[in-house]
Amino acid sequence: MKQLLSGNEALALGAWHAGVAVAAAYPGTPSTEILQELAKMDGIYVEWSTNEKVALEVAMGASYAGVRALASMKHVGLNVAADPFFAVSTTGIIGGLVVVSADDPGEHSSQGEQDNRHFARFAKVPMLEPADSQDAYDVMGWAYAISEEFDTPVLVRPTTRISHCKTVVEVDPERKAVPAQPQFRRAPAKYVMVPSNARVRRLAMEERIVKLHDYVETFPMNKMLLADRKLGVISSGVAYQYAREVFKDASFLKLVTTYPFPSELIRRFAREVDQVIVIEELDPYLEDEVRRLGIPVRGKEFIPLIGELTVEIAENGAVQAGLLPGKRPASAPATEAPLPLPLRRPQLCAGCPHVGTEYVLRKLGLRTNEGPVQKGDFVVTSDIGCYTLGVYPPLAALDTCACMGASIGHAIGLKKAGIPNKVVAVLGDSTFMHSGITGLVDAVYNQASITVIILDNETTAMTGHQGHPGTGISARGLKTQAVKLEDVVRGVGVRDVNIVSAFDLAEIESAIRKCTENDEPSVIIARGPCTLAVKTRRTPFAVDTEECTSCYVCLDTGCPAISLVDDRAHIDESCAGCGVCAQVCPQEAILEDKR
Amino acid sequence: MNNANVLMVGVGGHGVILASDAMAEIGTINGYDVKKTDSMGMAQRGGSVVSHVRWGEHVFAPMIKKGEVDFLMGFEELEAARWAPCLKSGGVAIVADVVVIPISAVSGKIPYPTWEQMRGILEQYTDRIYLIPATRISREVGNPRAVNMVMLGFLSAFLDLEREAWTETMRRRLPPKFMESSIEAFNRGADEAGAVLR
Question: What CATH number belongs to A2-216?
């Protein structure tokens, strides 16, 4: 049966067809849709976990119960889950356990770029890399088989262009594998990693890798295509697709098992061709392995190790390296200098509940964009989420953004280092649940005089509105017990807790003024739903052009519904009726448009 | 069987992804090897959205190489101009008469260009440029969100599948509420192409 599937849809369907019984994930681009797809299927338990570490631990528990389990996450999610990742490599598994970690070369929607293939070698976990949706569907069955045969977790590593690309897939019409019956068999030597047991498991890890080295030599998804013997290209993942377009006549070795590495297969391929090159995205991971075998190889000398690879980058590199004939210069150079075009940066939406708080922060405490902060200025540490877009002008309301939950630790560190400024940490509700709580406990325990603002839009907005513990909505969209932010915040000992409307600027301003005067840790929960999740529209606003004096203060909100028509502010039909612009207008020239 | 490299560009929330999904699906059903990929970065709404759709006998790379776009579908004028250098020489540019002024042009130094300026950019790569009254057509069929369907209809006139092959698949995918108006928008787009190509 042929279907057009994204890589993520294919990974989910492949896992389901392999009989996976428990799947856990935290949303993160480009991995989110894997769990979303599984949540549409029967005969499987799915959950959005609090974070990736918990997701993998849930999957470990399920595996110990003897059923097949899946944890999926974005590349940086595996940083969070690194502890259980190494741990499960040590204990091994009972039911097959697969970790899908989707890399994001080029940082389409990420705070950093990293090559997670190193994690496989680092944690001694076998790895499979799909090169299209068909591979993504097929690797899941193999991954579970390898996991159970070799008592190991398996890492499946797609990238953005695999996860988010739709390709034609031949799939089974039905689910043949049924989930195993769960049963826990007591085996402390396997599950309880006190040093005496861990030392024994450590040997098992190495023995396992030796056996896997033999296994991957004949793995059927690794494919050798012999054509013109002058050039042999070794590649994997989406880079393989680019290489096929660039080197149309060359011989190819496509690898799906990239850890451990099929050394004999590589040697055989190298003997068949005159020269070997490696085409890969990010680090020289395969290239280093080939070189270690004593085979002369070229790769990163002409393929960049930063950013997303494309056909034209690979082609230009190949021309420079003398592997392809040089192209003739473009026939007719453009006669005019190209017109500079205005950029279209990602921005906060019309009606976004984050705008009000960030506008107030800007107004109260961020009077410079660069350089030493002024006396009386705030330092605003931020976090990962839609609200990070407030770093761009005109809001320009944020000073840091590093990794999930870091805003609170940053704030504590800045304050304890002794800067004289008020320090405010800003993070979202989902990010707070993910890894803000431990930071807040630290602030209470160490009495850091910081103010934490939780921007509570009642969803995980950036990745497309997934539930999280605060929402009380499960991965299947069902009602469950909500973990209330204010209960958590008070529960860890914060005494100064304030709940304000995210759309009421006066209320936000007075709460920030009060809290930043307080010497003990304080929390403001700025609550207002994500405008994209709101079904009923509020009354939109309009500018009274008689009253408008063209002061442009409303433009400082950065609202995309406001533009200029004949030098006066104009609100278009995308207005969501949040009323923030009406509150900032000094002329009171913005009014509800009741027509 | 015609191979086709189609680059659809626009602004988040304007139906670019829906249109490219439909086109990919229709190609698959009609026996093409298909790859389609989107770049939307962090844009949920308001940012640039780019979708690559490739139909062929065997497609390797999901992204179309710069200079090899057969059809540039601009769902917004500025985005069409921005992506013009991806067109192959003599490729077809189909642009909807939709203008969405970015925040950077409201308060910044670079103004939103005029259509004549943007047409000039496109003309450096091709003389086959079609500005489609998609806004008017979609309003006339009573579905202002069907600009994407007008665009697909216009494109369909250049490709070798029958009109019914398109509308049949759409009937299976569209919600009943928007079905008839969307199909009408598609047909009106195709008629528009028929009129200007004659």
Answer: 3.40.50.970
